[in-house]
Structure to design on (217 residues):
């Protein structure tokens, strides 16, 4: 392996930090909003409004949502958003729409008797969802959540379009400086692939620990 290739690899890998910040922040936003949307729709709280929001988010490109957050919101509210904050907001909102649909399907797959038993025992709704419903739903839909996380990881590459120095942007900088695109783009692809493998491995390990909560076939 040449010194130049090693230098390129290290330079591109330096963008992993930004990519992981975007991923972790977006997951937190996506899961939080996704849980709220799913529970609200199940309980018929603003069901039509939430359904419309989810439909719009799923029906428009991620890069459009990223552009709106980065260019439109600062213009309307006279504020300045940095690249990481912009990415977390845009990708988190985008992910929340898909997470809410995954969780909604998981909630509706549970036996209705569990809800009825919780109500008859006088368990407060907060504790019913936290201790009874959501742990089972999380175990049942966990593979789908892992897939959404992998998709979200790859979507973070769009932050390069607004100047974020992530993995993709750094590979573009190298390519533009030398007018040679194959090697830096392949290196970027390798880094993303390694990150995906790590996520999938972590997902399998967590899934093994969650099996006691999974719904019995």
């Amino acid at each position: 392996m040449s010194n130049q290739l090693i230098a390129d690899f290290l330079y591109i890998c330096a963008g992993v930090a930004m990519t992981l910040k975007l991923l972790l922040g977006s997951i937190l936003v996506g899961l939080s909003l996704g849980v709220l949307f799913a529970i609200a729709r199940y309980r018929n709280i603003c069901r039509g409004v939430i359904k419309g929001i989810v439909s719009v988010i799923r029906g428009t490109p991620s890069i459009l949502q990223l552009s709106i957050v980065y260019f439109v919101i600062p213009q309307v509210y006279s504020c300045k958003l940095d690249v990481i904050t912009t990415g977390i907001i845009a990708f988190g909102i985008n992910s929340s729409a898909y997470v809410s649909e995954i969780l909604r399907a998981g909630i509706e797959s549970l036996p209705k008797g569990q809800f009825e038993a919780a109500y008859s025992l006088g368990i407060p709704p907060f504790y019913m969802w936290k201790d009874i419903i959501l742990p089972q739903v999380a175990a049942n839909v966990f593979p789908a959540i892992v897939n959404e996380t992998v998709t979200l990881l790859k979507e973070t590459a769009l932050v390069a379009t607004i100047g974020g120095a992530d993995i993709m942007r750094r590979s573009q900088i190298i390519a533009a400086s030398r007018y040679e695109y194959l090697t830096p783009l392949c290196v970027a692809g390798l880094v993303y692939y390694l990150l995906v493998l790590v996520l999938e491995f972590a997902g399998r390990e967590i899934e093994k620990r969650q099996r006691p909560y999974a719904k019995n076939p």
About this structure: The chain is about 80% helix and 0% strand.
